[in-house]
Design goal:
90 residues, alpha+beta, three-stranded antiparallel beta sheet, 3 strands, 10% strand, globular
């Protein structure tokens, strides 16, 4: 529930910071678009969604795997919401 509030708070903000896109996590975008986070990752890999890879995300985790942390701009989410080509995609 806390995660949903933060997504809504970021997407409905009306301050001077509106000129700067907020960066959302894959999970936050998936929640907004009502799809699974795996779908968002597939869309990023295929180039359907532009994402930013955080520089600190290339460090190995405790298990030794490298997990890239991606962020998606709110303007990119808005573009997807207004583009009918994404409706029904998985």
């Amino acid at each position: 529930m806390k995660e949903q509030r933060s997504v809504l708070a970021r997407s409905t903000s009306t301050t001077d910071e509106d000129n700067v896109d907020a960066l959302l996590t894959v999970r936050e975008v998936a929640t907004q678009l009502r799809v699974d986070a795996t779908t968002i990752r597939k869309w990023i890999a295929s180039g359907m969604i532009a994402a930013i890879v955080l520089p600190s995300s290339n460090h190995p985790s405790k298990s030794g795997h490298r997990h890239l942390q991606r962020r998606i701009r709110t303007s990119e989410v808005d573009r997807i919401l207004h583009n009918s080509a994404y409706v029904g995609q998985k």
